[in-house]
Write a structure and sequence with these properties.
The complex is a heterodimer of chains A (285) and B (342).
Chain A (H helix, E strand, L loop, with lengths): L5 E6 L5 H14 L4 E5 L3 H7 L10 E4 L2 E5 L2 H12 L9 H11 L5 H15 L5 E8 H17 L3 H15 L4 E8 L2 H17 L6 E7 L7 H6 L4 H22 L4 E4 L7 H13 L2
Parallel strand pairs in A: 1-5, 1-6, 2-4, 2-5, 6-7, 7-8
Antiparallel strand pairs in A: 3-4
Helix pairs in contact in A: 1-11, 3-5, 5-6, 5-7, 6-7
Chain B lengths: L2 E6 L6 H14 L4 E6 L4 H5 L10 E3 L2 E9 L1 H12 L2 H9 L1 H9 L1 H17 L5 E5 L8 H14 L1 H7 L6 H5 L5 H10 L3 H13 L2 H17 L1 E6 L3 H12 L10 E7 L14 H27 L4 E4 L8 H9 L6 H4 L3
Parallel strand pairs in B: 1-5, 1-6, 2-4, 2-5, 6-7, 7-8
Antiparallel strand pairs in B: 3-4
Classes of the chains: A alpha/beta (285), B alpha/beta (342).
Chain lengths: 285, 342
């Protein structure tokens, strides 16, 4: 996966997309890569896992080899107009920028194509070995991946169409672009992940994703007799809790076997701690 | 008029399960209760032990005072257009390709549709209490700002810019492309996209008066609602919960309860564990997690000077009415009177 030049990380809200993105980025930097991480829709999650309050639209160095930016829509829209559509001096073109902004909240695909466009543009200009996009939640992934197509259907000629075409090509190129689908071993995340996989399989806009199951418990190294003998109290309660949760998780994992499992991290207080520990786990294989 | 209980919070915190649990609790206390969730959250049906759940409120077979319904936001939008637009425009509007896009992708749209449905149920006076499981896309306070945002979309920011304040005639519109900015936009876009969008917005704007009136009524319902914010000790939902104290629109009162879900027993954290071995090591790990949860809760409560309620972590998701009722029975610090579930 890390051999590609773009990895889009997605998953249902609350499964740990940002943590996994930040961890993956750390791992890639550790392997000597020059990495850019991009917060696509959630401005805050990735920033916190990188130990920052917020991220700017301009890529900033977090630590050697690791850079980060967040897609702020007005700035992204401006850049899309200027760099991709070649509309000159947008600052002096206030009305046009305003029209586009209003369009972006009305016409299908514009908002998403501007966000995807920023990510794909960073891949295309080859300033980084790897771009890791902390992507939209699962519910919005289809509209983002399909945005170039939607827009080119809407605007059948001209520069918008040309831009949409290279975006689709870059996304579809399996040696360049890949996707990670983060999930939890619980009912709703597994159901939604399975539906997303089906949609992605049918539409083939990007190479089939790798599934990462987050917060997985390891089995308890104790027999049920030992648990019984522990007698009533916290030791036994915690053991039973662990066993039941573990069984539930294994039931859901059987439904959708993941490519990679990341452990449940106990008692970690800060997002950077979580990201660092996950990066270590990744390193251990 | 029914009382309203709005259950809000970030994704994956167990909002739907707690909505169902509060609904069952109220129903068992003799309160005629409707629980409403938004498509595609099938969790409500599973939690209540129902095979399927329609968009019409249906009574629960095993619980005399309990009704449930699942909103279909896209169908609601068609109904909203038909309700507020002139008959000839309504047909053209729902067939317009922009309509589906605008109503499905505009972030406030799903929230607004469910808020308008909520208002319909409240005004039907068929229930004492309507429990609303707010849409996951709204996450938090977006649900409350959705009427204002819809007014803005339908009021037509683009259209107002194109034409000035008054609603223009169609003919005006076709001369608009003479304006220099639009000519450049046309070149960049290579088509008459702006014009097509403007046409759509003109149709959409015919629903403005109706929608504005309705939006004001919905905001009035919000003012009179009780709200519960559900969170876990994870950073993302905590950030959403923070916003209920920091960014809440003026019309909405502060939450009536903040509920921390999936709480571990504080007694599991023992500074000096009794002995060693895998079982004790397991307790130490879970105890560290319990300790972290306590820290997060205390920090939240102190920062916002509020009390917080806790609901215990159940390793298995509740799938029966009794499980749901037990969840509220085992909660701590939750005032059932204040939430209107007794």
């Amino acid at each position: 996966m890390l051999e590609r030049r773009l990895i889009i990380v997605t998953g249902k809200g609350g499964v740990g997309r940002s943590a996994v993105s930040a961890a993956l980025a750390s791992r890639a930097v550790h392997l000597g890569k020059r990495v850019l991480t991009v917060a696509m829709t959630d401005q805050v999650g990735l920033a916190l896992h990188l130990g920052r309050e917020r991220l700017d639209y301009e890529a900033r160095e977090i630590r050697p080899g690791l850079h980060a930016l967040a897609v702020h829509r007005p700035a992204a829209l401006n850049e899309y107009l200027r760099v991709q559509l070649g509309v000159p001096k947008v600052t002096r073109m206030g009305p046009l920028a305003r029209a586009f902004d209003a369009l972006a909240s009305t016409a299908p695909g514009i908002r998403e194509v501007v966000t995807m466009g920023k990510v794909l543009w960073e891949v295309r200009r080859e300033a980084w070995d790897l771009v890791i996009a902390d992507g939209p939640p699962l519910g919005q992934i289809a509209s983002h991946l399909r945005a170039p197509l939607t827009v080119s259907e809407l605007v059948p000629v001209g520069r918008v169409r040309e831009q949409a075409e290279w975006m689709m090509e870059l996304l579809a190129d399996a040696s360049t672009s890949g996707m990670l689908l983060v999930t939890l071993a619980e009912e709703l995340p597994i159901t939604e992940t399975r539906e997303a996989l089906r949609w992605l399989g049918e539409h083939q806009m990007i190479d089939p994703p790798q599934v990462v199951a987050n917060r997985i418990l390891v089995p308890l190294q104790a027999t049920s007799r030992q648990i019984k003998e522990a007698g009533p109290g916290p030791v036994q309660e915690a053991a039973r809790m662990h066993e039941t949760l573990h069984e539930e998780q294994q039931r859901w994992i059987k439904e959708l076997p993941p490519d990679l499992q990341l452990p449940y991290l106990f008692g970690l207080h800060t997002p950077p701690e979580v990201a660092a520990r996950l990066a270590d786990v990744w390193g251990e294989g | 008029m029914s009382r309203v209980l709005l259950v809000t919070g970030g994704g994956g915190v167990g909002k739907t399960t707690l909505s169902a649990a509060l609904g069952v609790t109220a129903a068992r206390n003799g309160v005629r209760t409707l629980v409403v969730t938004v498509d595609p959250a099938r969790r409500l049906a599973t939690a209540l032990g129902l095979k399927d759940l329609g968009s019409e409120p249906s009574p629960h077979e095993d619980e005399p005072n309990l009704w449930a319904a699942m909103l279909d936001a896209s169908a609601s939008w068609k109904a909203i257009a038909r309700r507020h637009a002139p008959a000839d425009v309504a047909g053209r509007l729902v067939d317009n390709p922009f309509f589906e896009a605008a109503t499905q992708h505009f972030p406030a749209s799903q929230s607004y549709a469910s808020a308008e449905e909520m208002a319909n149920y409240v005004e039907a006076r068929a229930w004492d209490l309507v429990v609303v499981d707010t849409p996951p896309s709204a996450g938090g306070i977006e649900f409350f700002s959705s009427p204002a945002e819809m007014r803005d979309l339908v009021g037509g920011r683009l259209l107002r810019w194109l034409t000035g304040g008054a609603l223009p005639g169609r003919r005006t519109l076709f001369t608009l492309t003479a304006r220099p900015a639009l000519r450049i936009a046309g070149t960049a876009l290579g088509s008459d996209l702006l014009e097509r969008v403007a046409e759509f917005l003109m149709d959409l704007r015919t629903i403005y008066d109706g929608l504005s009136r309705r939006a004001a009524q919905i905001e009035q319902h919000f003012r009179e609602s009780r709200t519960v914010v559900v969170t876990t000790a994870d950073p993302a939902p905590i950030r959403e919960a923070d916003r209920f104290y920091r960014d809440l629109p003026d019309m909405v009162p502060h939450p009536d309860a903040v509920v921390f879900n999936r709480v571990l027993p504080a007694s599991w954290h023992q500074p000096e564990p009794p002995s060693d071995g895998p079982l004790v090591e397991n307790l130490i790990r879970w105890g560290a997690e319990a300790h972290r949860q306590t820290d997060v809760r205390e920090e939240f409560a102190a920062h916002w000077k509020t009390e917080v309620a806790t609901v215990p972590w159940r390793p298995k998701t509740p799938t029966s009415l009794d499980d749901l009722a037990a969840l509220i029975a085992d909660s701590q610090g939750l005032s059932r009177e204040r939430l209107g579930v007794v």
